[in-house]
Amino acid sequence: MLQKFMRRFTRSAPPGRGMSPGAALILALGLCCVLFVPRPEPAFAAQPMRVVYGFDREFPPFTYEDAGGVAVGFEIELVQAIFHDTGATLVFRPLNWERIEYELSAGDINLTSGMIRTRQREQLYLFSEQPSFPLQIRLFTKVYNRFPSALLLRGQPVSVEQGTYQHRLLQEIGGFNIKPFTRRTDGLRALFNDEVAAYCAPVQNSYYYINKLNYGAITTVGTPLGITNMRIAVNRDRGDLKRMVDEGLKRVRESGEYDRLYRKWFVRELEEGERRILVEAATRAAVPAYAPYGKSGRGAALLTATGKIYSACTMENADLSLSLSAMRAAVAKAVSEGEFELRAAVLVDPKGLILSPGAEDLQTLFEFGRGVLVLMPPDEQKSATSMVVELLPAPVRRESSLVPAY
After folding, report:
1. pLDDT at position 121 over 90
2. Mean of the pLDDT values across residues 58-79?
3. Which residues pair with 90 in a beta bridge?
4. What's 394's DSSP letter?
5. What is the mean pLDDT of the chain?
6. How far, in Å, CA of 212 to CA of 4, rounded?
7. Crossing angle between the packed helical segments 359-366 and 326-336, to the nearest 10 degrees
8. How many whole angstroms separate alpha carbon 295 and alpha carbon 283?
9. Is 321 helix (H, G, I), strand (E, B) or coil?
10. Rounded to the nearest 5°, which phi and psi values hold at 316?
11. What pLDDT does residue 12 have?
12. 3 state DSSP class of 257
């Protein structure tokens, strides 16, 4: 057969371009390899990465199961956004928290969320560079029995979920008559029934149950006992997965998707009546403004989580550093009354025209939560609202000095 190939190529060559027997042999051998050497079977397409995400089934509104058993919550959607368009297949696995830590160490699940990084846990897991959420631990009391400071609760009975971070925090601070409960809702119920003077728990989780159980007239006490960052934790052997989490979390924050999810899960939108009352209160407050230098006073009004409204006006000073804006004066007024949960704010001129707050006012509001709503100047006959973090490109942040050692 090889000789047949050679005769064919030497005879069919054009005049003047005859192929030598050696060249014909090489070409014939090459064709034989192409035609008769078996080709390898096509490789199977790479299988998509399978990521098992174990989540706390009882930590609303961060992670929980709805009535149909579907995984829902802020961190559920955050993890989905992190792995969006990565090609990875995300598998949700609902667990109790104690089981999550064991299975993450064993590699039965690849990652979890809502974990506080400690020195002990750093030996067991990898943690995301950026936090997923800054968790505030606070005391709650009845509105009609409010304590202006946690110091006044020393010696008083305080309910808390047994074995949790907040339980250990109360023990570390000391001085409280701690009443541990196996279920967090039991501790909250004890406060509602006046069996304890206060309840200690994470802010967002507490408000979720307060609203769900219709436990009205409950509010926070003074300064947070602790602020600590929750992070996404990854199995120690999955450095590749940690890099994917870090890249995804950065992308979600930069795209604005993080703030969209935050607003969806943690911000109670204003009703039209609440907007109107806020603007009216701010307009009235602008009347007595002291503005001999700027010649144009301002009025501001704040709406708190308890439904109260605090308003104030501009107070200028010849030394500009001592001038007090209407917004900052209103915030100081609310705090002096023990109100720390701010829902919304508005700044107006003496005619009631809504104005955009300056950077100092926005930073003051940001101190009390990224989700404080700010009424903005009318747009198409509507007063739009934006979260304060959306209006402040580079807010000043400080990490809590509290670093848990356990």
Report:
1. yes
2. 95
3. 51
4. S
5. 87
6. 89
7. 20
8. 16
9. helix
10. -80, 165
11. 43
12. helix
Cα angle, residue 242 at apex, residues 239 and 244 outer, rounded to 5°: 115
**312, amino acid identity:** A
- Residue by residue, DSSP assigns 178-242 as EEEESSHHHHHHHHHTTSSSEEEEEHHHHHHHHHHTT--SEEEEEEEEEEEEEEEEEETT-HHHH
Contact 357, 301 (CB under 8 A): no
The length of the chain in residues reads: 406
Beta bridge partners of 55: 94
Q: The tokens of 155 are what?
A: 């010696």
In 262-384, at which residue ranges do the beta strands (DSSP E only) sit?
299-304, 309-313, 342-348, 354-355, 373-375
Contacts of 340 (CB under 8 A, 6+ apart): 220, 222, 223, 334, 368
Cβ 354 vs Cβ 299: under 8 Å: no
As given in the structure block, the two tokens for residue 275 are 């907007």
For residue 142, the tally of other CB atoms under 10 A from its CB is 18
CB 222 within 8 A of CB 139: yes
pLDDT tens column, 19-28:
455 544 444 4
pLDDT top residue among 178 and 20: 178
CB 343 within 8 A of CB 223: no
| Cα distance between residue 370 and residue 16, in whole Å | 84
Tokens read off for 197: 């003077």
Backbone φ and ψ for 293, nearest 5 degrees, come out as: -105, -45
Chain centroid to Cα 306, Å, comes to 23
CA proximity to 113, closest of 261, 251, 233: 233
Q: Which amino acid belongs to residue 296? A: S
Scored b (16 or more CB within 10 A) or e, 202-233 reads bbbbbbbbbeeeebeebbbbbebbbbbbbbbb
Instruction: Choose among 58, 63, 94: nearest CA to 78.
Output: 63
Q: What angle do CA 141, 146, 148 make, to 5 degrees?
A: 110
CB 265 within 8 Å of CB 73: yes
CA dist 112 and 124 (Å) reads 13
What is the model's pTM?
0.82
Q: Measured between alpha carbons, how far is residue 347 from residues 22, 281, 372 in Å?
A: 93, 10, 14
Measured CA distances, 332 to 28, 71, 116, 340 (Å): 92, 40, 32, 10
Q: Whole-angstrom distance between the N-terminal and C-terminal Cα of the chain?
A: 81
The closest alpha carbon to 115, from 99, 94, 133, belongs to 133
| Residue found under tokens 């299975």 | 103
* Among 119, 101, 129, CA closest to 244: 129
Query: Which residues are paired to 138 by β-bridges?
Result: 201
